[in-house]
Design a protein that fits this description.
Blueprint lengths: L2 H13 L1 H15 L2 H4 L7 H4 L5 E5 L1 H5 L4 E6 L3 H5 L1 E8 L8 E9 L21 H12 L7
Antiparallel strand pairs: 1-2, 2-3, 3-4
């Protein structure tokens, strides 16, 4: 987990400790399951599995810029369905046991009912949003390959 995403979770915890706890628990479940981790780089995972547990897909705008970045959320926890997205990068390796998923951000999803005081923080994958810019920087600082 990148330091930036830990800071994201600290902000969420300050506002809603229960949401932060659920997100941490979800990430621990994901990290502890090779089966679930193996599904994280599917473009349309939810549509291809009987019991998906989470939804994930590539962030097309970042993929088009060469960044191998995806988003996911829980289908079983209320926070995931309504409020938050976890953004991560996939680092491939010759040996599947060496593949790494880097959590780059935990963001509040912008919706039609996002409170005005949270609208600057809420995220909808805009290319010029501070979260997108941070993800690009963090991705590159990790030494991950940017495809051109």
């Amino acid at each position: 987990m990148h330091d930036s995403s830990e800071a994201d979770l600290a902000r969420i915890e300050a506002r809603s400790p229960d949401d932060a706890y659920d997100i941490w628990a979800f990430l621990e479940v994901m990290d502890g399951s090779d089966e679930l981790i193996g599904r994280l780089c599917r473009w349309h995972y939810r549509q291809t599995h009987e019991d998906p547990q989470f939804d994930c897909k590539a962030i097309v705008s970042l993929q088009q810029e060469g960044f191998n970045v995806y988003r996911m959320y829980s289908l079983e926890m209320e926070w995931g369905k309504r409020y938050y997205r976890i953004l991560y990068a996939y680092e491939s390796a010759a040996d599947p046991d060496d593949e790494v998923f880097h959590v780059l951000a935990v963001v509040m999803k912008r919706t039609s009912d996002t409170p005005p005081e949270l609208s600057d923080e809420a995220y909808n994958y805009e290319l010029d949003h501070p979260v997108t810019l941070r993800i690009r920087d963090d991705y590159q600082s990790l030494g991950l390959a940017v495809r051109h």
